[in-house]
Specification:
single chain, alpha+beta, Beta-lactamase, eight-stranded antiparallel sheet, three-stranded antiparallel sheet, 13 helices, 11 strands, globular
Length: 317
């Protein structure tokens, strides 16, 4: 089957097209639109998988982490004050400081928050990095297990070794091609269809893993702002869901896990644009009854505006 097409219009014509490859795994098998064989680095869409050892090991419970902190552990947050303050408080709770983060300094993804920092004479910060919450989770696991937090982003560090083993279990195969993610941690490329099957495996999990998946998914829905931020598609979707969760990743990746529906969804925009997979994910969720047909109309098609704020076109699946 052909990939899903996302169109960008201007002046009443289609100006650009994005090809989005979609794989949906269920108890009945797998549905593919596009290239299910495509090797895909999941990037930040894999954050729930990366947080599983934190929850499954009991480290999150022993550290007294709240659902809000578990949402942050899976976040690609905008670097807004609510995010930055929450990560800083978490590090203080661990007896650590911003300097222990190894994710690299960044300006907030949320543009107004960046302007506010600049006006205050502040610059890029490790706390503003969209992955700082995830890294706080890594260090929580390291401290719980009595290993040095230094170097926790390296593939050979015990924390990353546990994550790699967990991803291999989820995929039921060895992790694929190794790469380094934007925040410095390992990322692994597997076929899109295998990623979807792994997500379905998580959606269907029972026992300790099933409880961990449900706990993390519930945190996404209860604290969607912490997962993303203001005017973010992932925030709006998670806030509207009655089951499961979604998470986007850089270079146009989006994952969804839905335990009640028994579905795992993986998609990848061939061109790497986030705007393509956002409207594609909303379309797929509505097609499968995971969102009401009238939910999130602002993400059914996204208005394309010029610098003066005038609507000049749209992005639509």
């Amino acid at each position: 089957m052909n990939p899903m097409m996302v169109e960008v219009t201007r002046g009443g014509i289609v100006e650009s097209e994005h090809r989005v490859h979609v794989a949906i795994a269920s108890h009945d098998g797998i549905e593919i639109q596009g290239d299910g064989e495509r090797l895909t680095f999941p990037r930040s869409a894999a954050k729930l998988m990366q947080a599983l050892p934190l929850v499954e090991s009991g480290a999150a419970h022993r550290a007294g982490l709240t659902p809000e902190q578990l949402a942050l552990a899976c976040a690609s947050h905008g670097g807004e004050s609510g995010h930055v303050n929450a990560v800083e408080a978490w590090l203080t709770q661990l007896g650590l400081t911003e300097t222990h983060l190894e994710c690299g300094p960044s300006w907030p993804m949320h543009e107004p928050s960046g302007h506010a920092r600049s006006a205050q004479g502040l610059g890029a910060s490790l706390l503003c990095n969209c992955c700082s919450g995830k890294h706080a989770g890594f260090m929580t696991l390291a401290k719980d297990q009595g290993v040095d937090v230094a170097g926790y982003i390296q593939r050979e560090h015990p924390v990353q070794q546990q994550i790699e083993a967990t991803i291999g279990e989820v995929l039921d195969m060895p992790v694929g091609v190794f790469g380094v993610d934007g925040c410095g941690i390992p990322t692994y490329a597997n076929r899109l269809m295998d990623l979807a099957k792994g997500l379905h495996r998580l959606a269907s999990a029972t026992g300790v893993r099933g409880d961990a998946v449900k706990t993390l998914a519930a945190a996404h829905r209860a604290h969607p702002f912490m997962v993303g931020g203001t005017d973010r598609c992932c925030t709006d979707i998670n806030g509207a869901l009655a089951d499961g969760m979604v998470k986007y990743g850089a270079e146009g990746v989006y994952f969804g896990i839905f335990p009640k529906a028994g579905l795992g969804i993986a998609m990848k925009a061939e061109c790497g644009t986030v705007r393509a997979v956002e409207v594609a994910m909303v379309r797929v969720l509505k097609q499968h009854g995971l969102l009401p047909a009238d939910a999130l109309p602002q993400w059914d098609s996204v208005s394309l505006k010029n610098r003066a704020g005038l609507v000049v076109g749209e992005v639509r699946a």
